[in-house]
Every structure is written in C-alpha cells, then in structure tokens.
Amino acid sequence: MINILWADDEIDLLKPHIIFLEQKGYAVTPVVSGQDAIDACQEKNFDVVFLDENMPGLSGLQTLLEIKKLQPALPVVMITKSEEENIMEEAIGQKISDYLIKPVNPHQILMSIKKVVHAQEIIEEKTTSSYQSEFSKIGMQINESLNASDWQKVYNNLIYWEMQLDEAGNGMDELLQMQKTEANSQFCKYIRKNYERWMENGERPIMSPDIFKTKVFPLLDKGEKVFFILIDNLREDQWRIIQKEISGLFNFDDDSTFFSILPTATQYSRNAIFSGLMPAQIRRMYPQYWVDEEEDEGKNLNEEALIKTQIERFRKNYKFSYNKINTNQAGEKYNESVKGLLSNDLNVVVFNFVDMLSHARTEVKLFRELAPDEAAYRSLVQSWFRHSSISGLFKLLSEQKVRIVLTTDHGSIRVKNAIKVIGDKATNVNLRYKVGKNLAYDKKEVLALQKPDIAGLPCPNLSSTYIFADNQNFIAYPNNYNYYVQYYKDTFQHGGISMEEMIIPIITMSPKTS
Description:
The protein has helices at about 15-25, 35-45, 60-70, 85-95, 105-115, 120-145, 150-170, 175-200, 210-220, 235-245, 265-275, 280-285, 305-315, 330-335, 340, 355-365, 365-370, 375-385, 390-395, 480-490, 500; strands at about 5, 25-30, 50, 75-80, 100, 225-230, 250-260, 320-325, 345-350, 405, 415, 415-420, 435, 445-450, 465-470, 475, 490-495, 505-510. The chain is an alpha/beta fold. The chain is elongated, with a radius of gyration of 28 Å. It has a 6-stranded mixed sheet with strand order 7-18-10-6-9-8, sandwiched between helices. Strands 2-1-3-4-5 form a 5-stranded parallel sheet, with helices on both faces. It has 21 helices and 18 strands.
C-alpha cells in the first residue's frame, strides 16, 4: 500500500480529497503543520508527501528543507496558492518532485501520485509493450536490409530500444540482446559480401577518409570556425549518453553515423580520417607518416602532419591547431587556451579516455567488475564525461560562435567466442584482426582479404593477408588457448566487423546561445 503524508493547516477542508484517495487504495496520514510533518517523517516511512507552502509556523519551504535532510529521496509535492516565480524556483532548487496550484481537485492529486510514485512502473509497462509490438518489425527490418543506409537505421533502432529497456529495467533486455546478436550476424554477412566491392568501384557509404571532405571543409568554406573533436573508441550508444549531458547547450544540426574502414583500429581508421586517404594510399604517398604493424614505433604519432597533407591536397588555406588529450590535467590546460585558439579556422582535438577505459577494463579486474555489461560501460563513460575536462570544454564552446564536429575513429564490441588462428611471430597482437604472411584459419570464421590493396590496405609483405573476426568472436592462438579464452571473454575489443565497431557517430552542432 502507498503511504501518503499530507500537511495543510486547513486539512479538515480536504476530507473529500482524502476519502477519494482512500477509496483508491491509498493510506493518508493528515497533519496540520510543518513541525507535525517533520515529526511524522521521523516516526514512519512515507512514499510521497503533499506539502502546503503557506502554513503558520514553519513554512512549506522550511518544512521541505527539514524533510529532505531526514529523507533525501522522499518525493515531495508542493501545493501553493501563489504562482510567484521565486517561490517555485526555491522549491525546485530543493528538489520537489511536483507542484500544484490551489485550489486542487482529487483527480489532480491522483495524477500527481501516478507521476511521482508510479512513474517507473508505468514506464516499464509501456516500454515493454512498445518493444514487444516492435520486435517483429525489427526482425523484418534485419532480414530485409539491403544497403548501408538500411543497416544504419537498423542499428540506430536497436540502440534506441536498448537504452529504453535499460532505463525501464524490466528484464526485456535479454531478448533485445538476442535480436542484436542476430542483427550483427546478418550485418557481418553483408560486409563480407560488399566490402571489397565498396573499395573497388567507389560506390560506398561515407567512410573514414570522407569525413573532412563531407563534414568539415564545407563548414570552413562558409567561413565558420570549427572545433573538430574526436573521442577515441566512442560507440553510438555512448554518444547518446553524452548527448543528454549537452543537449541544453547545443543544437544538433546533423546527427548521423558513418562507416569505419577495416580494420576498425586506431592506426587505420583515425589516420584515414585525418589524411582523407585509405591506409595503402598513405603508405604510398606519404611513407614517412605510415608505420607498419611490425614496427615498434607509435602508430599515431603523425596525425597533425596528415591533417596538413589533406588540407594542402584540397588546396585549402586553413589555419589549424592539433592537440591530443590523454589526461584530465592536459584537458584543463587545453581549456585555458580555448580563447586563443578562436583565431584559427580549425581546431582539432583528440580525447583518448574511452579507449583507455576499454583497455583498462580488459587488464584490470576492478574495471571488469565496474563495467560488466554495455549498460554499466555507458554509465562509466557518462561519469567520465560529467567530471572530466571535456565537459568543461563543451561549456566553454557553448559560449562561442563556433561549430563543433564530434566523432570517433571506431567503436568496440563485447567479445564472447574464441576462434583459433595460427600465425608466425611477426603477426600482430590484435584480437579482432590479424595481418601476416603465414596465417592458418577457418575460412568460414573470418573475412579474409588476400589482396589487401583492393581494400585499400598496405601489404607489409607480398604474401600478406588480413583476416577479420566478426560478430562477437575473437582470435586466440592454440598455444595457451584456455588462458586466452578465460582472460579475454567478455572484454570490449575493436578491429573487426560488427555494427558497434563500424557504424559510428558523426555530429555537427552549434551553440544555442549563438
């Protein structure tokens, strides 16, 4: 039974309201003063408090403050004769759950109870029924997806329902995960069938090398000041969490997705974004800026130089800056320089935290416990965003007349199934793709590119082959196979083929204040 505390110095006049609620199955405790309400909260647990703002002795606002000290999570509905703005602001500031203006009728009280007390229950019921009715439609959508645009719609639809069911917390997420796995299975078949064709004939969706040409240069050509922000390893669902955090500051002029190239790994995908070229083209045209897999040198040390080559190749004359942020301290320092950067046409900044979080989750047991699944992983990203320097950067930029292009280089997927591959010592260590000259594998389990140049990939050796794990698979060597399986199962990895890794966000936004 729902227990209601109702404090009003004219409580006798509210007898009909109380009788109405009791007939609906609610238990109502009436009191006539703020102090009585505080005493009642000390003696008994209530589900909601209705509190008159204008009472003799302790006012409603004073009573609200004391009740919140006793029970911070207790919902309080303020009832007032006054519509004065300062009273409402103060009440809202003390986190009232709802407010009503006198005179109130019983149905208003009932609706407020449903809103405050039964909201989660109603949301769960409505979300469950809505997803159940959508389930078969999504299944048909998965089976009928014929092109890249169809798959972007499928993935966005699945992300929408994943987050709706996550918020509802109704146990339906297991069914959705099964549907998502089936979608990934069909998506991987689609990529296996079409990826090399995309590269050969040029009829492809927007991909990593196209981002500056299609999303950044058109803004710069119009005279816009642009901040290009790349958050490494950011998935579409994680972007949706960040979007909620900044929706009050920005208009989202273009909120869409694009396809990462293969491998969906930083060395390839991010260098392709910054250069506007496929990796094989970078290696051929700018060999000084490309580092092969087997070399010990860092693979992303030439990003600023690659941006410069792309600007020059398109015969642009943009003044730009480039920064990479690996720590919160570095981010704070960057924020201090923002006003000075406004003289540039383009400012590029890379944030590495989400990728670092992914690696930490693999290597540190504590992080696995903190983020056992996708919902918890999203929560960690949200917490990072709220408390990191990047949140401060967005607040600073919301006060400037600039455009922001936010994107990533690739996403990641939680892997579950190990597949065996044999390679020599020169083979790379990534769990989602391998490149080598003597690879032994099951052709049914991977996408194999035996002519890498067709897919725009460099060949370290004449006989080099690239293979890609798909869906939730990861690659393990037969040596120490059981250790590999146990250690890497349920970790988030990237480099292979899945919707989570390949279909990634690209957003253009502008400050609401401008």
